[in-house]
Specification:
By secondary structure, the protein is α+β, with helices and mostly antiparallel strands. It has 31 helices and 24 strands.
Length: about 900
């Protein structure tokens, strides 16, 4: 039994050894078979990889279908701090994981889309998982950024398209350049698309995908970098040792060293060569070797894709080169570089096989598959994690500010805009949005020329307007471009300058009732005009206002009676106020003729109060009228019973009316006040017309300082009320500070267009203050002549302030110049205004008192109510 045990043990060992040998032999045979049939193994691996990739793609496509898009619009005061931008980056990184557990990593991304297609300088969109919408909708930027739910963008196919993917090149652990927030880091990208032309189909879009860093990939990357750093350090140590040995050998073999050994007293020194100790490789520090990858905090992977398109050959390629240059701004020891290979003049990249199909898939489905080098910290993306700030200089595109088209009634010319690529175009605003406009600037700066160009363009488009110019210089400047046969029937000239030996003057009866005015509105308008021009109010001149109101009520009633009797040529004028107050016979006849037309209060005032007034109470009322009568031009203009001037009819018939009051003296100011108040009355009277049927009308007021000196409250009321009646006011002045406070406040508050030329800093400061000192008064004050800064409203948004060059009539309307037809235009304009020779109107005005008296005598009832006489009249 004992002798058999060793035998059994040996046999078991032999069996085990045989099994091991058989296993090894099998493995060798299998390896040999696989070596001979390697293609089967490769095919199996490829099939498994293909099936896995197909499943992952389908799952990623399904996850990408459940995405949302937000568009961020910043205002001109948006100036975020670095901390606010960093917090936004943290939100984006966190939102990238708000997907179902089964979603592949390539679908777990948040995408920033910077897009320029002509609708805006640079649209800023965020696209991400639907589950991250609440997180992404609330930004740390506050009210300066509006977050809107964005719709999908459908692009029309372009003829030429180029694509590019950018990867980080340079030292992989080095950060991108820290770009300051002032100026905006987006400025190079905005400049790169500033010359984009939508009419040519230009399109440029940058997509930055942000994905949280997977831990296993980060560890693998760190191991790779540490291994590379250690190998590099060993190579450096070996290189240093080699050079050290070479240096030592060179020294020992040199003649100088051998001579030193021969002369040396120490024979042991020549026994052999010196032992050289090679340098030891220094320890690799992880923080130094890993750089920005040393810490896990706020480390993300990014994918940067760019696509440019155009319908014109070469423009897409040029745009891509511009964007590539713009991305160079972010480069330092690490930089953005285009992925691909260059073979001579050819470049193989995202536009070519085999990478084009993958690019299109990632572009369409928003999948993020970045290269292994694209690791960044959120601080490096500061410039791209926010919309454009107030420090970004945005271009004005045709989609934002339309191009002016001659004869288009929907557009209003504003000036000449020079785009960053040097092209110039006439820009305009939409007429229905240009409600009130204010132009400020020094004399000769071009504000009147700009207003004339706008008015002429509006007239040719069929619009009606009133141009009030106290100095008349605008009329001869405009006639060359208005002298068209189709315009002549619509143009009227009311010129009170009295040029020539026997000038032709139009006529207007402020008290006339032949045009269907409302009696109390006429009385109120004239009284308010007097009070405004003469600085009357209820505290300083209550009696004067009362006397004038009562007198006008009687004369308006007389004119009503004359018109109803079919004798409008017998109407009273404003000059009959003197006869009514100082001529007892005339007053008695007038009161008797219209006693039944007067209000009980008015009749009572004439019967009870008027007899108690002393004669000197009338002087304050009669003195202004005496001044008007002393001037032959104003006497002829206001002394006609049936005046032709009718601003309400001019509005409704789209007339182009030029009014030149003649100066800025006391008499001229009173006439201007009467005209301004009549305009206010006429516009307010449009309430009898449905809003849809009100014809747009544009009054232009040149030299607002002169006009508001006569009627400050009236002009202020225009800027407050006229919008409701489709009447848009344009005002020009040299100094806002010289305007009365009510006018200045109303102008600035309601102006939809605000413009200024160069001038003194003190004069410009009120305008630049409305723009938040951007541009500064220093910049505006040093502009060239005819240059303007203008802020406008387009599609409900403010555009600008934008620097425009004022349009010059001889340049932009050269094709409309008709200098030979100017005499015919002047004759037609005077005829349309009912202008007659001055001497004829003077004679007619002088006879009007007798005609009115005769009419009153004929229409005074025999049993008229007696009117008490004053003490002086009785005596």
């Amino acid at each position: 039994m004992d002798s058999a045990a060793p035998y059994l043990t040996d046999r078991a060992d032999d069996t085990a050894a045989g099994q091991v040998l058989d296993l090894i032999t099998g493995l060798v045979d299998a390896a040999d078979w696989l070596y001979d049939h390697w293609y089967l193994l490769a095919l199996a691996i490829a099939v498994c990889w293909g099936v896995g990739e197909l499943v992952v793609r389908r799952l990623a496509a399904r996850a990408s279908a459940e995405r949302m898009a937000l568009e961020l619009v910043s205002n001109r005061h948006f100036a975020p701090s670095p901390e606010e931008i960093f917090r936004r980056g943290v939100q984006l990184a966190r939102a990238s994981t708000a997907m179902p557990w089964w979603a592949p990593r390539r679908a777990k991304t948040v995408q920033i889309r910077l897009r320029a297609d002509g609708s805006s300088p640079l649209r800023y969109r965020i696209e991400g998982p639907a589950g991250g919408q609440r997180l992404l909708s609330i930004t740390p930027f506050g009210p300066d950024v509006t977050v809107n739910r964005a719709r999908p963008i459908a692009d029309e196919p372009r003829t030429h398209t180029v694509r590019a993917e950018f990867i980080l090149r340079g030292k992989p652990t080095a950060p991108l350049r820290e770009v300051p927030l002032t100026p905006d880091p987006l400025q190079p990208l905005v400049d790169a698309v500033s010359d984009l032309r939508a009419e040519l189909g230009d399109l440029a879009e940058i997509r930055l995908d942000i994905q949280r860093a997977p831990k296993w990939a980060l560890r693998a990357r760190r191991l790779q970098l540490m291994g590379a750093a250690r190998r590099s350090e060993r190579r450096e140590a070996q290189r240093a040792a080699r050079w050290l040995r070479q240096d030592a050998s060179g020294i020992e073999d040199s003649l100088t060293w051998q001579m030193q050994q021969l002369l040396s007293d120490k024979p042991a020194a020549s026994a052999g060569r010196r032992l050289v100790m090679p340098p030891v490789p220094r320890r690799v520090e992880p923080a130094e070797a890993l750089g920005k990858l040393a810490d896990d905090d706020h480390l993300v992977r990014v994918q940067l894709l760019v696509m440019c398109a155009s319908n014109t050959e070469g423009r897409a390629q040029a745009r891509l080169a511009q964007l590539q240059a713009a991305l160079d701004v972010f480069g330092g020891r690490s930089r953005w570089a285009m992925r691909g290979w260059r073979l001579g003049p050819w470049r193989i990249g995202a536009d070519h096989w085999p990478t084009k199909r993958g690019f299109e898939r990632r572009w369409t489905l928003a999948h993020c598959q970045p290269p292994r080098a694209n690791w960044v910290r959120l601080e490096e993306l500061t410039g791209l994690l926010k919309p454009p700030t107030m420090h970004c200089r945005l271009p004005v595109l045709a989609g934002e500010l339309p191009t002016f088209k001659f004869g288009d009634p929907e557009l209003l010319l504003q000036g000449i805009y020079r785009s960053p690529d040097g092209r110039e175009r006439l820009v305009a605003t939409y007429a229905e949005e240009t409600l009130f406009e204010v132009g400020v600037g020094k004399a000769g700066g071009g504000k009147t020329e700009r207003a004339l160009a706008q008015a002429i363009g509006w007239a040719h488009a069929g619009g009606g307007l009133l141009f009030v110019d106290p100095h008349r210089d605008s009329w001869p400047r405009a006639t060359t471009f208005l002298a068209h046969q189709d315009l002549m029937p619509r143009i009227a000239l009311v010129d009170l300058n009295g040029l020539g030996a026997n000038p032709q003057v139009s006529s207007w009866n402020p008290l006339g009732m032949h045009q269907g005015q409302t009696a109390h509105e006429v009385v109120e308008a004239i009284t308010d005009a007097y009070a405004s021009a003469l600085a009357w109010d209820d505290a300083t001149a209550p009696r004067a206002i009362t006397i004038l109101t009562a007198a006008l009520a009687v004369l308006v009633a007389v004119n009503e009676a004359a018109c109803q009797a079919g004798r409008p040529e017998d109407q009273a004028t404003i000059f009959h106020v003197r006869a009514l107050l100082t001529d007892p016979a005339f007053r008695k006849a007038a009161l008797a003729a219209v006693a039944d037309r007067l209000h009980e209060e008015t009749r009572s005032w004439w019967q009870v109060v008027f007899p108690t007034l002393p004669p000197d109470a009338f002087a304050v009322v009669l003195n202004p009228i005496a001044r008007l009568a002393a001037n032959p031009i104003t006497r002829a203009f206001l002394g006609q019973p049936v005046g032709v001037y009718n601003i309400r009819a001019a509005m409704d018939s789209r007339m182009v009316v030029w009014v030149c009051p003649g100066g800025n003296g006391p008499t001229d100011r009173l006439v201007t006040a009467l005209l301004a108040r009549d305009l206010l009355r006429a516009v307010r009277s449009r309430r009898d017309t449905p809003e849809a049927k009100r014809v747009p009308f544009r009054p232009y007021f040149d030299e607002l300082i002169t006009l508001t000196g006569a009627a400050p409250e009236t002009i202020a009321a225009m800027f407050e009320d006229f919008r409701k009646y489709k009447c848009q006011v344009h005002g020009m002045t040299q100094l806002l500070a010289r305007l009365p406070s009510p006018v200045r406040l109303s102008l600035v508050q309601n102006a939809s267009t605000l413009a200024t030329t160069a001038g003194s800093k003190s004069a410009i400061a009120p305008i630049t203050a409305e723009w938040g000192e951007d541009p500064s008064p220093d910049r505006v004050a040093t502009m060239e002549r005819f240059e303007h800064y203008v802020s406008m409203n387009v599609h409900g948004r403010r555009v600008g302030p934008v620097q425009l060059r004022g349009p010059h009539l001889d340049a932009i309307f050269a094709a409309q110049a008709r200098p030979r037809q100017v005499p015919a235009l002047e004759q037609a304009a005077l005829a349309n205004a009912g202008a007659l020779p001055l001497d004829q109107l003077t004679d007619h005005s002088a006879q009007q008192i007798s005609r009115v008296a005769a009419f009153l005598a004929e229409h005074s009832p025999a049993t008229a109510t007696p009117v008490p006489l004053t003490k002086e009249e009785y005596e």
